[in-house]
Amino acid sequence: MANLATADTTEQLQRLEQSIDRLLSEAKRCGATAAEAVVSASTGLEVAVRMGEIETVEHTRDHGLGVTVYFGKRKGSASTSDLTPQALEDAVAQACTIARHTQEDPCAGLAPAELMARELPSLDLDHPWGISVDDAVRLATDCEDAARAQDNRIINSEGASLSTHAGLKVYGNSHGFVGGYPSTRHGLSVAVVGKSGDEMQRDYWWTSARAPEDLEAAESVGRRAAERTVARLGGRRLGTRRAPVLFRAEQAAGLLRHLCGAISGSALYRKMSFLLDQLGEPLFPVFVQVQEDPLRPRGLASAPFDGDGVATAPKTIVRDGVLQTYLLDHYAGCRLGMTTTGNAGGVRNLSLRMGDKDRAQMLQALDTGLFVTELMGQGVNNVTGDYSRGASGFWVENGVIQYPVEEITIAGNLKDMFKGLVEIGNDHDFCGSTTTGSWLIDKMTIAGE
Amino acid sequence: MPPTSCKAKTHTPMTDSIALARQSILAPVGLGDSDLDRLISALSSPAIDAADVYFQSSRLQSWMLEDGIIKDGSFNIEQGAGLRAISGEKTGFAYSDELELGALTKAADAARAIARGGGAAPVNIGGAPARRRLYDPMNPIESLDDAAKIDLLHRVDAEARGMDTRVKEVMVSLVAVQDTILVVSDDGRLNADVRPLIRLSVVVVAEENGRREQAHSGGGARLDLGWMLAEDRALGFAREAVRQALVNLEAGPAPAGTMTVVLGAGWPGVLLHEAIGHGLEGDFNRKGTSAFSGRLNERVAAKGVTVVDDGTLPGRRGSLNIDDEGTESHCTTLIEDGVLVGYMQDRLNARLMGMQPTGNGRRESYAHLPMPRMTNTYMRAGNHDPGEIIASVEHGLYAANFGGGQVDITSGKFTFSASEAYLIENGKISQPVKGATLIGNGPDVLTRVSMVGNDLKLDEGVGTCGKDGQSVPVGVGQPTLRVDGLTVGGTGAD
Predict the structure, then answer these.
(1) Positive or negative CA dihedral for B22, B25, B28, B32?
(2) Contact assessment for residue B358 and residue B344, using Cβ atoms and an 8 Å cutoff
(3) In 10 A of CB B294, how many CB atoms?
(4) Residues of B in Cβ contact (< 8 Å) with A90
(5) Which of A44, A158, B148, B190 sits CB 3.0–4.6 Å from A165 for a disulfide?
(6) pLDDT of residue B14
(7) Which positions in chain A touch B490 (Cβ < 8 Å)?
(8) How many other C-beta atoms lie within 10 A of the C-beta of residue B288?
(9) Which pLDDT does position A271 carry in this prediction?
(10) pLDDT given at position A439
(11) Rounded to a whole number, what is the distance in Å from the CA of B417 to chain A's nearest CA?
């Protein structure tokens, strides 16, 4: 199989492929009827500055190996950070020992050979950044300086950090499939503290990309962190009430993740989902369209094949509000009597078709209600859909922000919240693998004073 | 294992964890004292204030039961070394998963580049005898044979399913870890610790008339797996998970609004971890970004409230003989009778704040930098009977158990989610209500504690705390507490 690599990484990819070969033949030697393995290597640099001074300079260098062996329908797994030949042998031996004790599971095994990725499309994921420590420090400092200079209420900082990572990952299994590719990821983030009277607030902003030139400018990241921080000063509580809620795009992306969690194979076959038997059913109003594009060039979650070696492809998850597919790996597909959807390892690059209103127009649509800009805690029950989380944001009247609010909770049920989606904004404004605008939801319970 | 007072320390004869660590980490790769000396020298220079090398070797075995069969198992081996050089507030850090002198020296050079200049006098590598033995330096993976572990999982599954026909799904997992660490400091001091850790978790889904609810339970300790078998402990976790799932099947909507809340004993101490604990970690206070910054000796809780962080409890999940910088663990009083008296420190933050390290310097692994972290954080018992506390509430919420929580260190706002809760009406526990998130303000919440129970309990040993992307095992605990005015985030209309 051809691999996607620049000349620099070809040799290292070959070394990792040899490790895969060795793992698979060792598994065969131990008597395994099938096996799969994944090997990875990455290097990186992370620098953090705080109050204009270097805080940490971290050089990262990681290796990893995971192997799963199958003896018919029984399996065992092992992993290690050591890629020496002896460690490979030991890992396979450990996995085989485990498999002596596991029991027959009718669905255990590799995905069918005919589903393996045949050609690996070029996804443009590899953009190494040979930035020096000094330049990295300068960029992080520029970012923090911009945040601190933005407003005189910014009195302290948790610092800015710049990171760059380059890695290689190779997966192979006993069908003869071996696929590997290099990828890079770079990021810049900053968190600052604002003060007004006795009150302190902190907020942050970040940028992340496969290629350094796609990062948001350092000064812009800093300014946005500062703006977000000072906007929270003067936070008040609200009285308990029911009101419409506008979720900022970042927080709306979290609601989409809850959707994906509930339609993921492992939740469904365990019956630990509030969306059992919902395929072909309307979950949202008709204007809602959700797509997954695992092949998006430079996408932060892009991958040419999934964790089972199965080829990935774009698909529609929700069309006209109706659920079109579950998100299945081979195992969960088998458990549900269905076929894998190429989602071993999760969902890759979600996007929701945006409406035509900008932030100000979405606030107009909210009219009087809560604009949520941060959520806290783990109060999401995937089995029942019950949703109760700490929140902060702004109280809005007649489409105009009145004051920041904090120390409140918002609660409802995700099923009702999805059905109660009134409108989606076009105000997508953050980095990440999920693309959505803000969501206006008709009514939720707000608990406060 | 009742918590001891901060003044009572357990000193037992020395363990030879240094010899064990040398044997399991250094000997196989042929590293000797002269190599350690060379690494420390390579990390040091006149401009370097502190440096250390942290060696780690860990083994983890896990088993998972689902659908009544042992579905999966895995074995993980990790080893490597993290090298750190500190100059003022600056830290240089590099790590290697190859324990070979060339790779380690390269890492040392990268870490030392944080300060210019080089060349330091050689040091004498030597081990300080370990003075404390809170747990045995054994390997819990080998404390029970694999067939007996499998049998234990099946018995837990059968116990859960046998309790009630409404139980539809049972998942059980068992994890055993042996973590061996060796820390070499810039003065040549060598410290080591061999840390066992075990944990069993049970998740249950119950169904009745098309309604499904889940619950989980479990426990763990720094002990051998015999602990799970003793007193039918593991079966008790199964019974507890089923009990909670069945309670949740009957639960109505939780109320919404600010009300009197009675918090149960034990795991609900996650309140202290979130509301108080993180805000008292040294790094946030040195930087002045905590809602508790600069508030030492001020009243931050009601009289009668005393909170400690205690890494010295024998066998506890959050306990450590030494922290990850080689400092002996402490019992640190954080709040004494309502007054803020202490922070939790690692070496770096203690030095910069002119304080003493408190044995709270922890790291997830050799590939992470240490920082101040909690160990076992709990509130001391008061003198109210728990029944008396419930009876004192006319209308409120009894939050018997919790899931996880989160805190914003700077604003002090924290949340945590109830997994089992009931309404209190006229001094009596009534209808169960669905899990709701509670929200409050850290520096304020403990001033609203009006009654402290006499039933101090520590959690069962399942807590994991995340900070800056690093996870470490921790413990929490508290007696039953009455808090006058916490916001409950239910959907129920009042």
Answers:
(1) negative
(2) yes
(3) 8
(4) 77
(5) A44
(6) 43
(7) 388, 411, 445, 447
(8) 15
(9) 94
(10) 98
(11) 6
- Residues of chain B with confidence (pLDDT) below 50: 1-5, 8-14, 494
Judged by CB atoms closer than 8 Å, whether chains meet at A383 and B410 is answered as: no
Residue A433 has pLDDT above 90, yes or no: yes
Fold category of A7-231 in CATH? PmbA/TldD fold (3.30.2290)
The answer for A 321-380 residues in CB contact with B (under 8 A) is: 376-379
Give the pLDDT score at B187: 87
What pLDDT was estimated at residue A344? 98
Q: How much is the pLDDT for B46?
A: 85
Please answer yes or no on whether A388 and B437 come within 8 Å at the CB atom.
Answer: yes
Per DSSP, the three-state class of A155 is strand
* Average pLDDT rounded to a whole number, residues A366-380: 96
> Is residue B486 a contact partner of residue B395, using CB atoms and an 8 Å limit?
no
Return the residue in B71, B83, B166, B433 with the most chain A beta carbons within 10 A, the one to mutate for interface testing. Answer: B71
The pLDDT value given to residue B339: 97
Distances (CA, A) of A78 to A93, B21, B66, B198: 9, 23, 19, 18
| B384 CA: distance to closest CA in chain A (Å) | 28
CA–CA dist B172, B221 (Å, integer):
17
Task: For this complex, say whether ipTM is above 0.90.
Answer: yes
CB contact under 8 A, A447 and B490: yes
> Rounded mean pLDDT of chain A?
96
Contact of A448 with chain B, judged by CB distance below 8 Å, is answered with yes
A408 interfaces chain B, CB cutoff of 8 Å:
yes
Q: Which residue of A has its CA nearest to B80?
A: A81
Which ranges in B314-414 belong to alpha helices (H)?
Answer: 347-353, 386-391
Residues 41-60 of A with CB under 8 A from B: 50, 53-60
Is there a contact between A379 and B435 if contact means CB atoms under 8 Å apart? yes
**Cβ–Cβ contact A411 with B under 8 A:** yes
End-to-end Cα spacing for chain A:
63
pLDDT value at position B45?
85
- Give the pLDDT score at B7: 53
Which chain B residues touch A156 with a CB distance below 8 Å?
287-289
Chain mean position to CA A59: 24
Question: Does the distance separating the beta carbons of A55 and B91 come in below 8 Å?
Answer: yes
> Span A210-228, mean pLDDT?
98
Give pLDDT tens digits for A285-310.
Answer: 999 999 999 999 999 999 999 999 99
Q: Rounded to an integer, what is the distance from CA B468 to the centroid of its chain?
A: 15
User: Nearest chain B Cα to A445, which residue?
Assistant: B491
Sign of torsion over alpha carbons B423, B429, B434, B438: positive
Q: Half-sphere exposure (CA, 13 Å, Cβ side) for B320?
A: 31
**DSSP symbol at B115:** S
- The whole-angstrom separation of Cα A402 and Cα A167 is 47
Three-state DSSP at B367 gives coil
pLDDT confidence tier of residue A2, bands split at 50, 70 and 90:
very low
Whether chain B has a CB inside 8 Å of the CB on A293: the answer is: no
Which residues in chain A are contacts of B367 at CB distance < 8 A? 60, 62
Domains of chain B in start order, with CATH, are 17-249 (3.30.2290.10), 256-489 (no CATH)
d(CA B105, CA A98) in angstroms, rounded, equals: 37
Mean pLDDT of A400-424: 97
Tell me which residue of A445, A283, A430 sits closest to A379, measured CA to CA. A445
Least CB-CB distance to B78: which of A60, A80, A388?
A: A80
* pLDDT higher than threshold 50 for residue A4: no
Taking residue A362's Cβ as centre, other Cβ atoms within 10 Å add up to 25
| Closest-CA residue of chain B to A107 | B71
B210 burial type by CB count under 10 A (0-12 exposed, 13-18 middle, 19+ buried): exposed
Q: Which residues pair with B401 in a beta bridge?
A: B420
Residue for token pair 């969501």: A439
Q: Among partner residues B257, B403, B415, which is closest to A376 by beta-carbon distance?
A: B415
